[in-house]
């Protein structure tokens, strides 16, 4: 019997910006069916790594594979991208389109049949509680609504691997609960989720696999229990990255 193919495999990905090494020859494997959390402090390289892994940013070297299909070179990555849904950080969407119009055009660009696009768009708007905003322009959406329509765009074509960069950032509790329910259903159907975050409590609650990234390097990766050992994830993370509380407070508040 052949070994299972990883949902996402990253091999020696590297990216520099001038003299700064943002991602330093990272190797990483995400098993199928995992809820994988990529954690690290601000500036650790999480967004840069994921952007290369999904084809949004050209690496200096290395490659990534989605369900065994290579992302690079882009010209031959159609199979990988068909299996991949992406919710990028700092999502920029056309502000003069409604959510339904955005999904319609994205579906047609992917070569989906118009009837399928319409049916899935209607279902996504209902499930993500966006039906009341059907005629609202995306430029007038709240942050939570933008996250939800971005998630709808990532799931429209039925991917098996979802990469979400900070999907819960700046999202209100109601919208967060909706996003969580969608991700749970995606996992239950056999999908794989890779999520970046710097909120340890959220990752510890949701994820079963974790990688800790700092200064562009993976410090530790594995199951949640392997990474945190006998500690909380917050404690393990602080120990790995050498985080220490400030030695003193602000002078003008000290008695």
TrEMBL record:
Alphabetical list of SUPFAM superfamilies matching this protein: P-loop containing nucleoside triphosphate hydrolases
Pfam families: ABC_tran
Species of origin: Microlunatus elymi
Keyword Flavoprotein set for record: no
Subcellular location: Cell membrane
GO cellular component labels: plasma membrane
InterPro entries per the UniProt record, alphabetical: AAA+_ATPase, ABC_transporter-like_ATP-bd, ABC_transporter_ATP-binding, P-loop_NTPase
ABC transporter domain sequence ranges: 8-240
UniProt membrane topology term: Peripheral membrane protein
GO biological process, one term: response to antibiotic
Protein name in the entry: ABC transporter ATP-binding protein
